Amino acid sequence: VQLVESGGGLVQPGGSLRLSCAASVFTFSSYAMSWYRQALGKERDLVATILKAGGTTNYADSVKGRFTISRDNAKNTVYLQMNSLKPEDTAVYYCYVRILWSTYWGQGTQVTVSS
User: Fold this and answer.
1) What is the CA radius of gyration of the chain?
2) How far apart, in Å, are the Cα atoms of 43 and each of 36, 59, 102?
3) What is the structure's pLDDT at 25?
4) 2, 7, 46, 109: which sits with the fewest CB atoms below 10 Å from its CB?
5) Is 102 left (phi over 0), alpha (psi -120 to 50) or beta?
6) Exposed, middle or buried, 104 (CB in 10 Å: 0-12/13-18/19+)?
7) pLDDT, tens digit, for every residue of 67-104?
């Protein structure tokens, strides 16, 4: 299983970014997908999760109303649309999937929110 994130970068406060995670999973549509983030010197925290059918999503309180997780099962890709970005959103963002008893992480993509 491989997860490859893209779309990170430097953005000003109030700006937007869309992260993508391409998954090499044979039955991608069968698994819930999540985004986590880890700021420098802090623990890795759950940001958002989308269930396999795509109809149910959950968000950390800190991003509710600003971030949207979605998935395209035909492309084996999960997205994180981030709007109204704040400096405190600065972190490395990771894609995550749990398949049976194993967990998989992408390499991460850096998001920096700064003026």
Assistant:
1) 13
2) 10, 17, 20
3) 74
4) 2
5) beta
6) middle
7) 999 999 999 999 999 999 999 999 999 999 999 999 99
